[in-house]
Amino acid sequence: MTRMRAFRTPGTGSSKNILVTGGGGFLGSAIIRQLVAQGHRVTSFSRRSHPHLDALGVRQLRGDIVNAGAVKDAVREKDAVFHVAAKAGVWGPADAYYPVNVTGTRHVITACRSCRVPMLIYTSSPSVVFNGKDMAGIDESVPYPTRYHAHYPRTKAMAEQLVRAAADDQLRTITLRPHLIWGPGDNHLAPRIIARSHRLRQVGDGRNRVDTIYIDNAAHAHLLAMEALQHHPELSGRVYFISDDAPIALWEMVNRILAAGGKGPVTRTLSPAMAYAIGTLLEGTYHLFGIRHEPIMTRFVARELATAHWFDISAAKRDLGYTAGISIDTGMQRLKAWLAESPFPS
Asked: Bridge-partner residues for 202, per DSSP?
């Protein structure tokens, strides 16, 4: 009972005052849509304004996550914070990732404490535990690796550990690890695959299975995490893999996305060893000559494309009540319809 009294009662009635960092992004926007549909008052904190959030009646605050003062102003008087903002990617210097992913997360935690915000839901990534080998049916007990081949997973792992360590009687936290989010509104995965269709190579024999998660399923899991923190404080500090709960061969998924965009399947192949060698060579060359744009292959990408990464989501089912409400088949139909009207190359 003492632990429960340490928390401020969120909101009035069932409606809460909620902040979403990175609210203009793919996942952030989906979370906001579902929060608004539930009647919550939502504020988005992003570096720029987004017309589609104006249309939802969402309050928008412009600011940078690395600015501690701006973060505190955004967090003030909130009942919950969804920290979605991040610097993603597989290439670039450490100083492009650390300020946003680590320092920015520290600012969010500090602001939540200072403003007595009782709940923080953090969006992480399964890549924080990727060691370059197959991850088949693993659960949350898998440890962090001793080394990383990219700054994104390294800094996300650092941030995730900050959030997990922050959980106490003042601040309840849950960390979610969605894998390969896709669907209508995608500004990264599907458009990237479609744009590169002419030069894609299947790495390996094509049998490595992966988990993916449809955008609405990912957003729903975040709302369930908030509910869980409100009603089950004993879950605070925990981390959960979330997915569509339907492991699929990676290259089958790639080909289905290509088909949704009106492209043919990948037919050319590359051995994992050759892909890794090319990634190593290109990384060295790009570093040597100071080339800033992303290579067509890196060591991290070579390992990801050739290995299995699917997860046991039993904990999310048990603790959060999560199920994937939208199947891959239904999601693909929606993606195809969206791509037909999108500005991305098809």
From this structure: 269
